[in-house]
């Protein structure tokens, strides 16, 4: 009987250990600041030149007005005529939260409200269940909603995260850049998300 109880105890301890290891793998990593609701963006923050908005040569068969997101490069391209594109530095999904596909912008919002989905709250329990739009909102100054998904192209209250793998799958720009992009693209704009650079 004692051996049987000991075996049961070991099996229960192993199951608890497995549950904890799975939970910790889904939690925020120690070096990952996560979303910081209430933090107001430092608009004087200077992006590294790599992440600053600029016109670049860009070869593609996609028509002008198309948005192409390269998660590997951490750049968003707005295709322009003449083999050029406007290139913006972005923050992309952290490892395990990156995706690819073809969507359209289905909605646009200025100073959007934020309702974190349940999966995000599970990973970051400190998040509010709802936050009105404004300078301290992690979605920043503008948001462009992608298809019927939970993903968006949006601003940020953490400009220092541009160029990093930081989000839960959305694409973030500094507020000045997302305002600029927002003014250039209508609802219905095609958005292509690629994980690997195009050859």
Considering the chains and any ligands shown, give keywords for the structure.
199 residues; 11 strands; two-stranded parallel ribbon; disordered N terminus; alpha/beta; 3 helices
Structure description:
The protein is built from 3 helices and 11 strands, in the order H-E-E-E-E-E-E-H-E-E-E-E-H-E. The protein is α/β, with parallel strands linked by helices and 199 residues long. The strands form 2 sheets. A 9-stranded mixed β-sheet has the order 1-4-3-2-11-6-7-8-10, with helices on one face. Strands 5-9 form a two-stranded parallel ribbon. The radius of gyration is 20 Å and the shape is globular.
Short description:
This protein has 199 residues and is α/β, with parallel strands linked by helices. Helices cover 21% and strands 25% of the residues.
Distance between the termini: 66 Å
Q: Name the helix and strand elements from N-terminus to C-terminus, one letter apiece.
A: HEEEEEEHEEEEHE
**What is the tally of beta strands?**
11
What strand line-up does the widest sheet have? 1-4-3-2-11-6-7-8-10
Shape: globular
Regions with little confidence, pLDDT below 50 for 5+ residues: 1-31
Question: What's the average pLDDT?
Answer: 83
Q: Radius of gyration, rounded?
A: 20 Å
What structural class do helix, strand and pairing data support?
Answer: alpha/beta
Main sheet makeup: 9 strands, mixed
Strand residue content: 25-35%
Give the % helix.
Answer: 10-25%
Number of helices: 3
């Amino acid at each position: 009987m004692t051996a049987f109880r000991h075996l049961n105890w070991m099996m229960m301890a192993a199951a608890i250990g497995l549950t904890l290891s799975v939970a910790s793998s889904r939690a925020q990593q120690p070096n990952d600041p996560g979303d910081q609701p209430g933090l107001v963006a430092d608009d004087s923050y200077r992006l590294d030149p790599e992440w600053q908005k600029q016109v670049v040569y860009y070869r593609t068969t996609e028509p002008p007005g198309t948005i192409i997101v390269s998660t590997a490069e951490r750049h968003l391209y707005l295709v322009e005529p003449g083999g050029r594109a406007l290139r913006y530095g972005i923050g992309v999904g952290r490892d395990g939260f990156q995706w690819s596909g073809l969507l359209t912008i289905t909605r646009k919002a200025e100073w959007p409200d934020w309702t974190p989905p349940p999966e995000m709250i599970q990973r970051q329990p400190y998040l509010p269940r709802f936050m009105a739009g404004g300078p301290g909102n992690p979605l920043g100054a503008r948001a462009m909603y992608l298809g019927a998904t939970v993903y968006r192209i949006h601003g940020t209250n953490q400009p220092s995260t541009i160029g990093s793998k930081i989000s839960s799958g959305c694409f973030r720009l500094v507020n000045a850049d997302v305002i600029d992009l927002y003014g250039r693209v209508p609802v219905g704009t095609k958005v292509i998300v690629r994980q690997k650079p195009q050859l």
